[in-house]
Structures are given as structure tokens and as C-alpha cells.
């Protein structure tokens, strides 16, 4: 019996500890540590709803305790309490108060929801039709199973798996999907929104990061076997650093590889270039590999090193089940050469 008593104490304690750990996180991916204006708006709504719930909970507990004490059974008292069949005032109050609380919660929630989904105009036009102000930058986000494509139409560059943003600037985002429904989410910078297949189902939102750093984004909609592995990096840079990155990306061309990785380049051209772009050459079926050696992750989830590059190329289905990367029958020497070549893919300096 004593053993069961000990377990009865340990289990609730472990439950409380696990509940406490659920509140832990870091500023790279935690919605509880907002680093952008959109995320701050979502966080404020969370605090507002939590405050309302706490107030209601405290009042209910107080009333419950009062009733337990005042109307508890007493020895020697066999009297029957006054039987109350209804109270008009109380019935009005417990109907009106929840309505008021819902209004208090609904108004800022609806306001923030519409505000977060409205993009500013990318250019203001003067009376004669001339462009006066370029306005916020625009990024077209396309979700794929199971990777992300980021197009900067004004800058004429495309990246994959890594989204670059200037700090303290608003950026318009157009969201779409190349296959199924996904959900674009950067917890520390803004709320989430679905990416739908079809041109007429494009969603819009905006991002406004407020702190330089590297953050993590993810897909928040169940989209297939490797949904849980559909991550991407968000790099927020100072304006000058962002402009330098844009310049380096635009100047990157598809060049001949150094002699030590020339074999890897030949393998890449024969098997990969038709799907993956490098600089000004290649296809757009798969992620762009421009500046691949500067990426932080392989396939969005593996540490960026030669062994993991070989692992991904050799058996992509083992890393991300259900993805569209075909299996290649490369031998170890070919894998080494191809990985060496990919590690040489840098942006122009």
C-alpha cells in the first residue's frame, strides 16, 4: 500500500514538472518570445485571453469556496436551507458577463486577424501615374513537399530553405503551394497562414522582424509523410548586410568548378542540373542550390557537412519519406565527388 502511496505522489509531481517544461523555449522558434511585430500581436492576444481565463477561474473558485463553507453540513443542524427557485438578477448577470468577456476578446482578435493578413501596397502612385515610393519589399513563398521556395521578384533572385529578411522593415508575403495545403509559420516573427494550391487561392500576410538573428520556420499543416521535417531557416540581417547578400546572389553565375571537384560537377550536370538551379542555369523543379555551401542545414534538417550531403543524395526517402527526390545509384567515389562539388557552391563575393 505504501508503494502505491509513493507512486500517487510521484506521478502528479512528474506531471507538474512536464507542464512546467512545456513553457520552456528559445527565441529561435518560441511564440512566447516574439521577435517581430506580428508575433507580438499574437502574443498580446494570448496574454489577454489568459488574463480573462484567470479572472474567471479565480471568481469561480471564490464562489465555490464560499458555498462550501457557508452551506456545509453542521452537526445538530437539521434545518432545511431556504429553497430558491430562481433569481432574476443573477440569471441576467451570468448571461451578460460571458457575453461582455467574449466581446472583449473578440474585438482585438478579429482586428489583429485582419491586420496580419493585409499587405501594404508595394508602390504608391502619384496623380500622373508615376511611381513615388517603392513601399515594402515583396516575397513570393511557394510550399512544396517537403521544402520551401522563396522568390524575391523585385531583386530577381530565388532561394530555397533559407529566407533572408532585412531587420525592422515590413515585408509583404504572397503564399501559395505547388502541391497540397501547407501552412507557413515563423513563430517568433509572425502568426501562421495556409499556403493553398491554385493561383486563385493565394494568401497574403506580412512580416516585420525586429531583431537581427537566425530563426526557424516550419509547416504547421499536416501535409504528408515528412510534414514534421519541413523546416526552414530565417536569417534577419541589417539592411546593409541584406543588400550585400542580394548583390552576391545576383552576381552568382554557373561557373566551372575547380579541378579537384570537376568530376562532381560533371555528375551534377548529368543528373541534377535539370531540376536544381545554380546561379543563372538549371531548372526549378527542386530547390535552388545557389550558395548551397553557405546553408546551415541539409534538406532543412541535417547538419551541414559532407557525410550528411552524401546521406541525403544516396537515400533521400530515408531522410524525408515521401519527398520527390529520386534515388540515384551512385557509388561511394561518385558521392564523394558530388558532395565536394556541392560544398564549393558559394555566392559571389
Structure keywords:
five-stranded mixed β-sheet, 2 domains, 14 strands, elongated, 8 helices, 349 residues, Immunoglobulin-like
Summarize the biggest pleated sheet: 5 strands, mixed
Alpha-carbon distance between the two ends: 73 Å
- The proportion of strand residues reads 15-25%
Shape: elongated
Spatial strand sequence of the major β-sheet: 5-4-3-7-10
The percent of residues in helical segments reads 25-40%
Compute the number of structural domains.
2
CATH class of the largest domain: Mainly Beta
**Count of extended strands:** 14
pLDDT under 50 segments (min length 5)? 122-131
Going by CATH, what is the homologous superfamily of the largest domain? Answer: Cupredoxins -  blue copper proteins
Structural account:
Residues 23-120 form the Cytochrome oxidase subunit II transmembrane region profile domain. Helix content is 37%, strand content 19%. It is built from 8 helices and 14 strands. Strands 5-4-3-7-10 form a 5-stranded mixed beta sheet. Strands 6-12-11-8-9 form a 5-stranded mixed beta sheet. The longest helix is centred in the N-terminal third of the chain and has 34 residues, at 37-70. The protein starts with a helix and ends in a 7-residue tail after the last helix. The model is unreliable at 122-131 (pLDDT under 50).
Amino acid at each position: 500500500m505504501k508503494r502505491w502511496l509513493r507512486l500517487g505522489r510521484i506521478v502528479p509531481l512528474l506531471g507538474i514538472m512536464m507542464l512546467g517544461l512545456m513553457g520552456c523555449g528559445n527565441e529561435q522558434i518560441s511564440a512566447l518570445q516574439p521577435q517581430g511585430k506580428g508575433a507580438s500581436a499574437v502574443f498580446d492576444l494570448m496574454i489577454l485571453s489568459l488574463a480573462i481565463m484567470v479572472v474567471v477561474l479565480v471568481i469561480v473558485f471564490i464562489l465555490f469556496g464560499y458555498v462550501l463553507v457557508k452551506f456545509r453540513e453542521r452537526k445538530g443542524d437539521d434545518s432545511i436551507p431556504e429553497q430558491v427557485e430562481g433569481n432574476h438578477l443573477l440569471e441576467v448577470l451570468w448571461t451578460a458577463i460571458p457575453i461582455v468577456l467574449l466581446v472583449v476578446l473578440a474585438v482585438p482578435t478579429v482586428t489583429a486577424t485582419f491586420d496580419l493578413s493585409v499587405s501594404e501596397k508595394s508602390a504608391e502612385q502619384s496623380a500622373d501615374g508615376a511611381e513615388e515610393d517603392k513601399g515594402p519589399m515583396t516575397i513570393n513563398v511557394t510550399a512544396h513537399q517537403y521544402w520551401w521556395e522563396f522568390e524575391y521578384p523585385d531583386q530577381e533572385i530565388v532561394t530555397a530553405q533559407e529566407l533572408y529578411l532585412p531587420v525592422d522593415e515590413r515585408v509583404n508575403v504572397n503564399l501559395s503551394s505547388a502541391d497540397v495545403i501547407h501552412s507557413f509559420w515563423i513563430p517568433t516573427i509572425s502568426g501562421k497562414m495556409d499556403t493553398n494550391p491554385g493561383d486563385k487561392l493565394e494568401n497574403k500576410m506580412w512580416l516585420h522582424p525586429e531583431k537581427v538573428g537566425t530563426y526557424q520556420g516550419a509547416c504547421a499543416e499536416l501535409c504528408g509523410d515528412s510534414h514534421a521535417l519541413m523546416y526552414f531557416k530565417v536569417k534577419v540581417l541589417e539592411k546593409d548586410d541584406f543588400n550585400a547578400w542580394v548583390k552576391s546572389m545576383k552576381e552568382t553565375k554557373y561557373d566551372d568548378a575547380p579541378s579537384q571537384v570537376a568530376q562532381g560537377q560533371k555528375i551534377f550536370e548529368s543528373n541534377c542540373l535539370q531540376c536544381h538551379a545554380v546561379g543563372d542555369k538549371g531548372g526549378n523543379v527542386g530547390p535552388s542550390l545557389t550558395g548551397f555551401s553557405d546553408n546551415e542545414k541539409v534538406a532543412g534538417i541535417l547538419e551541414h557537412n559532407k557525410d550528411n550531403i552524401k546521406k541525403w543524395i544516396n537515400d533521400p526517402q530515408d531522410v524525408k519519406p515521401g519527398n520527390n527526390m529520386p534515388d540515384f545509384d551512385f557509388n561511394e567515389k561518385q558521392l564523394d565527388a558530388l558532395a565536394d562539388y556541392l560544398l564549393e557552391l558559394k555566392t559571389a563575393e
